[in-house]
Amino acid sequence: MLPIDPNNEVAYSFVVFGASGALAKQKVFPALWALYRENRLPQGTRIFTFCRTHLQTKTYRLQVLPYMELEKSRDPPKYNRFWASVQCVQGEYDKPEHYVALAEAMAHQEAKHNQVQANRIFYLALPPAAFDQVTLNASRKCASPTGWSRVVVEKPFARDDVSYRVLQTSLCNCFRESQIYLMDHLLSRQVMQNFFALRFSNHLWSETLNNRHVAAVMISVKCELPVGAYRSDYFNSFGIIRDLMTNHMVQVLAMLAMDQPYTNSAEDLRAERLNVLRQVLTPSMADVVLGQYRNNKRETDPAKCGYTEHSFIPKDSFTPTFAMVVLRLNNRRWNGVPFILRAGKALNDTKSEVRIQYKPADCDSFHSDSADARNELVLRSHPTEEVFMRMRLKRHGEDLCLRESEVSLRVDDRGPKGLSGYPGFLLNVFHGDQTLFMRTDEQCEIWRIFSPILSSIELDRPRPLTYDFGSRGPQQAYRHAERVGFVFFASDEWHQSTETLEYTLKRSRQLIGPHTALKPVREVRSKRFTELSKS
């Protein structure tokens, strides 16, 4: 953050409700520090913590230190200045008088340096049960009298359509829609903006992203780690569908399938997303495959066991750790194209991506084994942010044989890098940019889509299919995806396999030839950055 300008008349207060929780320590404060370190926080910003636990700045900074990614060579002096702008306030969420004390603390800081306009942001790093009291008291006792007030809500956004209506009513009674920011921190701004540019500014993609050319779309969020103890109560209660599909994954679907907005404004874009969500048909249980990981009998690490073998999970739990849901849209552009949502824990890889798979071309004249060869537009947001086309090109040599290749559509890495993840979203809140934040009515439509199957799962308690820890998930899920029109290629995993590199190279040579098989494995950006900073 730049030094205070004596002529600056605008002050900012950023309040973290639930600061003693894991979300605030592991995500929110590291994001605020990243903005401060890069001089991106607005001048005159003060940070306040508010929670039931009595916190002190000198002890709280030690608690969040493991997550702050400090560089010892340059960060310590600036890090100390960052914490000089943090003030801890203790209070109960249901006591209005405690919010009065918070408002007085903010007003005291805002009155310094002749700052006459005060803007306030309230970040709810809280369980949904506390939203009602916090939003009510924050809007009544802590709203800015001279500037704007905004509220950031972190998932989960309730459990179903009934409980969400209570949350929506509470939010909308206390804040206007223009003040509410429903955050999906898993969304990649760079990747989605690249996709918008590809689709709406290039004839090739604007004319082919429809049911005449696209066979299927798969949206995947895979994690190789098991469910951790620190969030076991939440996960066992909510499950993988509520954790990922009812917010992040369906928002990605809406952005992929929406028509071009009338303008580039946030309101027009969110209106188009809402139109898409209203056209999504409610799935039945026949469209759902559920799984739960089990001990694969090979791991020596005791943490890599079956889901119900964890000491913090009930032995009779039927909570799914893997889910595949097939959604369909009832509109002219996408009618007949399955949108397959796939998410899971303890899988063979960690990645988040979208694969838009095109219908096959007739390749018999070139290669008899390529009759079902399909192009794919891949939008990958984790572990690397990239956009590329999966294609078939001629192999080296005199014969006309095909090999699998890719055409990178990434932006030149030599240019300035924008903020991504949490820091980028927080900066959007400061700037009032709601483009990548959901409206409350969008989330209402999402619950309309998922509540029937979630209700069936809770009432009937179907036993999830089992899959080995570290595998690709239940085989039934892949067969179901193939039945609805998606084709899996054996070389799908070669792009970024690191632990099974020897097998990957061998398999890639068999499938696509030696030239592509020897392509170096991509490193995760954060890992590259850490190694460079150490050298």
Task: Note down, in words, how this protein is organized.
The protein has 535 residues and is α/β, with parallel strands linked by helices. It has three domains: 10-154, Rossmann fold, CATH 3.40.50; 189-418 and 440-489, Dihydrodipicolinate Reductase, domain 2; 490-535, no CATH class. 37% of the residues lie in helices and 19% in strands. It is built from 16 helices and 15 strands. The protein has helices at residues 22-37, 57-64, 76-84, 96-110, 131-141, 161-174, 189-201, 203-206, 232-257, 266-278, 421-431, 440-460, 475-484, 501-512, 514-517, 525-534; strands at 10-17, 45-51, 86-90, 117-124, 149-154, 180-183, 214-222, 288-294, 322-327, 339-344, 351-358, 376-382, 386-394, 402-408, 465-468. Strands 14-13-12-11-7-10-9-8-15 form a nine-stranded mixed β-sheet, sandwiched between helices. The chain is globular, with a radius of gyration of 25 Å.
Keywords for this structure?
single chain; 535 residues; alpha/beta; Rossmann fold; Dihydrodipicolinate Reductase, domain 2; 3 domains; 9-stranded mixed β-sheet; 6-stranded parallel β-sheet; 37% helix
C-alpha-based Rg, rounded: 25 Å
The number of E-state strands comes to: 15
CA distance, first residue to last residue: 27 Å
Going by CATH, the architecture of the largest domain would be 2-Layer Sandwich
Count helical runs.
16
Percent helix: 25-40%
What is the approximate shape?
A: globular
Strand content: 15-25%
Most strands sheet: 9 strands, mixed
Mean pLDDT: 85
Oligomer: single chain
The CATH class assignment of the largest domain is Alpha Beta
- Tally of individual domains: 3
How is the CATH topology of the largest domain named?
Dihydrodipicolinate Reductase, domain 2
CATH level-4 homologous superfamily of the largest domain: Dihydrodipicolinate Reductase, domain 2
Low-confidence region ranges: 493-523, 525-535
Give me the side-by-side strand order of the main sheet: 14-13-12-11-7-10-9-8-15
By secondary-structure content and strand pairing, the structural class works out as alpha/beta
